[in-house]
Amino acid sequence: MTIKPSILTTLSEQKAELAYQTNSRESYKWLMKKIGTLRNPTAASAVMSKETHRYVRPSDRQKFLMGGLYFFVYDPKGKAELPYYDRFPLVIPLKRTSDGFIGLNLHYLPIRYRIIFLQKLLPFAIYNDEDEIKRLRITYPMLDASSKLKEFRPCIKQYLYSHVKSRILSIEHNEWDIATFLPIHQFKKAKPQEVWQDSVNEIRNS
Fold first, then answer.
1. Nearest Cα residue to 157 out of 63, 84, 80
2. CA distances from 52 to 145, 150, 172, 191, 203 (A)
3. 96 phi and psi, to 5 degrees?
4. Structural domain total, the chain
5. Which of 41, 105, 143, 204 gives the lowest tally of CB atoms within 10 Å of its CB?
6. Which residue range forms the structural domain that includes residue 118?
7. Is residue 67 part of a domain?
């Protein structure tokens, strides 16, 4: 099945940073619009009437698609004990738990590593009738067993529904590229470069 051209499927590692710079203005505008809808219920209703985004309310949390891509504001439990954390995760859910889910927060990877990782995951994509990516068919055991998918290790996190502090924005297939490049991580207690260096070390040592 043919994958439509996209940043994720055409970029080499060397071109990733240049492409990010080229798309930064478009990405920034997209970010401002979507972040506003997460914080403003009135704005969210207006956007929902004009676009195809689905905002998953806490009462609708079972509608999460495992293997989809989501943004939300998060305030982790036990944050005082954490070395650092991301307040605005970009997550691919893998497995439901009784009070939340386990997922991959792509923000824990430097941008170049995100591109490489998502390229590796594309063979596990499930498509809709228009040959557009609907979600990824991936599980923790599958990732853990693969020597080629080590990038997942620093990304695996557990999330509690009770600590999600916003509506949840479902990223549509044609926006995965932009979402991946956006520098909208909100790391607390550490600088992004420190977080990413820890992640790279974990990948190399795994």
1. 84
2. 36, 33, 8, 34, 36
3. -80, 150
4. 1
5. 204
6. 11-205
7. yes
Structural domain contains residue 22: yes
- Give a yes or no: residue 164 inside a domain: yes
pLDDT digits over 61-117, tens only?
Answer: 556 789 999 988 899 999 999 999 999 999 999 999 998 999 999 999 998 899 889
Q: How far apart are CA 103 and CA 69, in angstroms?
A: 10
Report the candidate in 94, 183, 77 with the shortest Cα–Cα distance to residue 136: 94
In sequence order, the β-bridge partners of residue 103 are 93, 157
Distance of CA 86 to the CA centre of its chain: 12
Spell out the long-range contacts of 39-46 with Cβ–Cβ below 8 A and sequence spacing 24 or more: 39/73, 39/166, 41/167, 44/167
SS3 for 54?
coil
Antiparallel, parallel or unpaired: β 70-71 and 168-170: antiparallel
- Residue 3 in any domain: the answer is no
User: Tokens standing for 89?
Assistant: 């995760």
- Cα R_g (the chain), whole angstroms: 16
Residue 179 is predicted with a pLDDT of 82
Pairing of strands 168-170, 100-105: unpaired
109, 155 Cβ separation under 8 angstroms:
yes
Instruction: Tell me the two tokens of residue 197.
Output: 């260096």
